[in-house]
Amino acid sequence: MNGVKADTPEVPLAYDPQWEVWVKEVKRFEIGSDTTPVAPSLGYGWDKRNFFKFNIDPKIAQRAKEIVIIYSDNDHDSIQKAVLILKKEISGVKLRMIPKMGHFTEEDMNSSEFPELLEESLK
């Protein structure tokens, strides 16, 4: 739609993250400078703490046209914490806060449409 190819990796057993399984799923998709990832989770509050042990490249924004983190002011505390850390760690990242949208699920947003994400994707 609108010339934007959209894929949603379906990671198996999301409640029980297995690194090798998730990497295999994500590698099925072409990831490049036009990729728009969504969900700034860093795994806070997860039982599998080793799953998210990595260093954030502070210069990652220099390899992309733009990095925009879209978040809501009433999302889970773990997401709020991740947004603050990403803002601090990544030089040049842009934040876009959407008030009172929860966790960007159809249930929280009361809609299956996400015009703010579409707008950012079309830039």
Strand arrangement in the largest pleated sheet? 1-2
Structural class: alpha+beta
Order of helices and strands: HEHEHH
Strand content: 5-15%
Mean pLDDT reading: 84
Gyration radius, in Å: 15 Å
Amino-to-carboxy terminus distance: 14 Å
Uncertain segments of ≥5 residues (pLDDT<50)?
none
Give the overall silhouette. Answer: globular
**Can you count the helices?**
4
- Helical proportion, percent range: 25-40%
Largest sheet: 2 strands, parallel
Q: What is the number of beta strands?
A: 2
Structure description:
The protein has 123 residues and is α+β, with helices and mostly antiparallel strands. The protein has a domain at 38-122. Helix content is 27%, strand content 8%. It has 4 helices and 2 strands; from the N terminus they run αβαβαα. The protein has helices spanning 19-26, 77-89, 106-109, 115-122, and strands at residues 68-72, 94-98. It has a two-stranded parallel ribbon. The longest helix is centred in the C-terminal third of the chain and has 13 residues, at 77-89. The two termini are 14 Å apart.
